[in-house]
Amino acid sequence: MGYSVSQLNRRSFFTVAATVATSSLVGITRGLAQMPEPFKLAPLGYANDALAPTIDAQTMEFHHDRHHGAAVAGLNAAVKDYPQVAAMRLEQLLFKLSELPEAIRTSVRNNGGSHANHTMFWQIMGPGGGKPEGEVLAAIDRDLGGMEKLQTDFNASGARQFGSGWVFVTVTAAGKLAIENRPNQDTPLMDNKRVLFGNDVWEHAYYLTYQNRRPDYLKAWWNTVNWSEIGKRYAAAKAGTLGV
What's the CA gap between 12 and 189, in Å, rounded? Predict the structure, then answer.
């Protein structure tokens, strides 16, 4: 049976339209696939063995590349279908955690909290970190009873943390300091507080060298603290520009 000219024209039109639609869909899909992931794992900033013997090179490699890397991947996976969420800065995500879509809230809490905590952690450590001075030293003396008491109380707080978690020194916009704990990968950012510095007391942070001797790790960890960076974070907190 033959086709009329009008039938052929109609048939050609729908064939072309379907081809164009398919091509457009493929183009959109490719474009989405090529979009950069919003959250990135920054380089460590120093060699894996730079903090040895306090923290060994293998622990640093596993901790940064695998543990932190997995959290970044998990966070990107959680927000991939929520462009407005993906466009937010990390600290904004955590400030507004209770307002996020329920479907991704737990993943953002765990992976976003981990990303924020570890980003801070790598920054406030480094070889040859020096000693606190200037405004941050004055704040430690005023609010935390001086360096010796800070270390004693901070270490005790970290040792008491049940299971996995973090111990932090928080800082207000006025520069006031306090020691606080959080379980798992929670962060004071979730309570609209800023972090001056903190230590990871998950076992993956210390087990290869210290096994179950968390107090030994906490005591030795102070050898890795980069007080110059902490001083910068203190100034940023007072200026209202401190991120994670």
Answer: 59
Nearest to 111, CA basis, from 16, 41, 181: 41
pLDDT, tens digit, 9 for 90 and up, residues 25-66? 334 333 444 457 999 999 999 999 999 999 999 999 999 999
How far is the C-alpha of 125 from the C-alpha of 177, rounded, in Å? 19
Q: Where are the alpha helices (DSSP H) in 96-202?
A: 102-107, 113-123, 134-144, 147-160
**CB-CB contact of 154 with 181 (8 Å):** no
Asked if 135 and 235 touch (Cβ cutoff 8 Å), the reply is yes
What the block records as the tokens of 213 is 């001797």
pLDDT of residue 28: 34
Collect the ranges in the chain with pLDDT lower than 70. 1-35
Would you state the pLDDT for residue 129?
Answer: 77
Please report where in the chains the tokens 């990390």 appear, as a residue: 90
CA distance 202 to 192: 23
Write down the pTM of the prediction: 0.84
Task: Classify 118 as helix, strand or coil.
Answer: helix
Give first-to-last CA distance, the chain, whole Å: 72
106 C-beta neighbours (distance < 10 Å), count: 12
